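Re: duplicated header lines in exported C-alpha cells

Our pipeline writes sequence and C-alpha cells for each protein into one text file. With two proteins the header for the second block appears twice in some exports. Here is an export where it did not happen, for reference. First protein block:
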Amino acid sequence: MIQQRANMDWMLKDLADSVPQTRHVVVLSSDGLRMAQYGTDTDTADRLAAACAGLQSLAGAVATEFPAGDGRMRMVVIEMGGGFFYLMAAGARAYLAVLADEGVDAGLMGQRMRDLVARIGEHLSTPPRHNEQGA
C-alpha cells in the first residue's frame, strides 16, 4: 500500500505541475476514504474525500435519468466563487478530485485528468470492502 501511494504521489504531482492554478489533488475511494493526495494537508484531503463521496453518489443518481446511458457518473465540474472543482471516475470504485483556482484552463484540466486516468486507472481502483466480522 505504501509503494502504491508513493507511485501515485508523483503522478498526482505531474497533473498539478502540468496545469497552472491547480490547488489540491485527491484520489478517493467510493466510500470517501482518501487514497492519495498532492498539494494539500491530510485534514483537507480527508474532508474533500468525504464530500466527494456524497457528490459522486448524487451524480450517479442523476445519471440514471438518462435512459440511453449506463447510469454511472464520469465527471462532475462545479464552478464556484474562487475556482473550479472537478470529480472524475478513475477506476472501479475510485475517483480523482481536483480543486483549482479561478484562472485555471478548464479544458486543459479535464484533458489532463482524462490522460492521467487512462494511464493509471487500474492503479486507482479499490477492491470492494467486505464485512470481516461476518466471515
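Second protein block, exported in the same file:
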Amino acid sequence: MHANKGDHLVVEGNKVGLQPREGEIVEVRGEHGAPPYVVLWADGHEGLTYPGPDAHLRPEE
C-alpha cells in the first residue's frame, strides 16, 4: 500500500452488518508511502494504523 498525506483510508467491516470506517491520513511514517499511517478517523480520534487486508485507499480529492 502506498499513501500520501491527505488520502483517505477506508477499512471495510469484516463482519456482516459492520459499517466501513474512514479517516484522513495526516502523517505517513513509512518509507515511500508505506505504513504505518497516522489517521484522523471520522469520529474525531487519531491513531497510528497498520492497515490490514480489509483496507483500501481513496486518493485525496
